[in-house]
Amino acid sequence: MSSTSGDPRQEHDQDHDPEHGYRHLRVDRTGQAEAFDRIGGRYDEAFPDKEGQIAATEWLVASLPAGSRVLDLGCGTGVPTARLLSQAGLEVVGVDLSDVMVALAREHVPTAEFHHADIADLRPAGPRDLGRFQGVAAFFSLLMLPRAEIPLALRTIRHLLAPGGLFALSMVEADLDDFPIPFLGGRIRVSGYRREELRAVVEAAHFDVVGESSWTCVPAGADVPPEEHLFLRCRKPDA
Ligand SMILES: C[S@@+](CC[C@H](N)C(=O)[O-])C[C@H]1O[C@@H](n2cnc3c(N)ncnc32)[C@H](O)[C@@H]1O
């Protein structure tokens, strides 16, 4: 594993400082949840090609012990990720910023537990404590954060994972920071990285990257051009 900061004392202090990093950040979610409230089930129609996501979810299922607790971060409609994880017998908790997405996910995956919450609320000693997980999936949700917040979200994910826990991440490959784009009839702000940079950001957050893949996705008749989807399979080191 490579990392930019290997000082364990610094990491320890950060894990016990709830506001570390967020203190210097103005968290602005204006319009982001509302956009997904309006999109609802149209999201799955616009992005029918879920091959990469299904493969990454299957990696979690195949690699985690039976009955493991798994978090789907920015779960959207719950399809396919929460549904597949739950069908495999894992204990699934989903979180999303959009009320409508949480309602759809509850409808689609009644065997899982869903919460209306912000990724930032799950930070160490933050306002929501959902316990610890053996696995976390964050598919196309961290891209809705400004770049300055993405390392903090990765630190939150590390905090939520048990030692040796697995993390499946997907992002769209793009050199953007909190950039407004038209999206399914509305506007959202998105961030992204080129693939080498994404890997560096994830490794700097003290994850081992154990696998990487990419898929070209052509959204169905939407106002979204073809995208390159990057998938990283990661592990939180033991202890
Ligand atoms: C592009 S969709 C991806 C949905 C799902 N993970 C999938 O891949 O099908 C992004 C999702 O992240 C949610 N989201 C955006 N910002 C969030 C935040 N700060 N905290 C929690 N969820 C967020 C959105 O509401 C939306 O459902």
From TrEMBL:
Q: Where is this region: Disordered?
A: 1-28
List the Pfam families hit by this protein, alphabetically: Methyltransf_25
Record keywords: Methyltransferase, Transferase
Which GO MF terms does the UniProt record name?
A: methyltransferase activity
Q: Which GO terms describe its biological process?
A: methylation
Per the record, the coiled-coil ranges are none
Which residue intervals are annotated with compositional bias (Basic and acidic residues) in the record? Answer: 8-28
Which Gene3D superfamilies does the UniProt entry name for this protein? Vaccinia Virus protein VP39
Name the InterPro entries for this protein. Methyltransf_25 (IPR041698), SAM-dependent_MTases_sf (IPR029063)
Please report the stretch or stretches of sequence annotated as the Methyltransferase domain: 70-165
Protein name (record): Class I SAM-dependent DNA methyltransferase
